[in-house]
Fold this protein.
Amino acid sequence: MKSMLLPSGYGLLFLFTLTLLFLVERSFGAETVGQKLFSTHCLRCHGINAKGSMEAAKSLKMDPSRLDLTKEAVVQKSTQYLKQRIADGHGKMPQHRQMLTRNQIQALAQYIQSLQKAYVHRVKPTK
Ligand code: HEC
């Protein structure tokens, strides 16, 4: 006798698909902590993927490349340097010591480095 409570083959397949979709959404849909912080505090100047915002560059009256955090000169810098610039600011870069915790600053430095890696990986082969 077939129990109505046990899912049929199609039912199992359906549940399996739902679980799979849920897991995919969890791993790819979720923003990292650093990414969220970047959107809130840094995006307006440093732009999408930290490539520098044209608008911000205009209003700050500087070359947009100054706002690009994925350029070679910044890739060369240490995590410590990034964290110090974020905390203390420099020139027209505001300091964030008061509004961010040490852990948040660490997460931001790591997020910038992950963007730098993605960028370097993308452009290297064409050189
Ligand atoms: C008001 C615009 C503005 C905001 C907001 C801002 N920055 Fe900046 N940032 C700048 C400018 C301008 C510079 C270049 C400063 C200079 O002349 O040294 C800079 C430089 C930096 C540098 C050093 C890059 C280098 O060339 O050495 C880092 C790292 C950095 N910013 C990260 C961040 C992070 C992370 C945030 C968010 C918490 C942030 N910035 C928010 C404008 C901004």
Q: What stands out?
A: The radius of gyration is 22 Å. The pocket of heme C is lined by residues 41-42, 44-46, 56, 60, 66-67, 69, 74, 82, 85-86, 90-94, 96, 108 (CB under 6 Å).
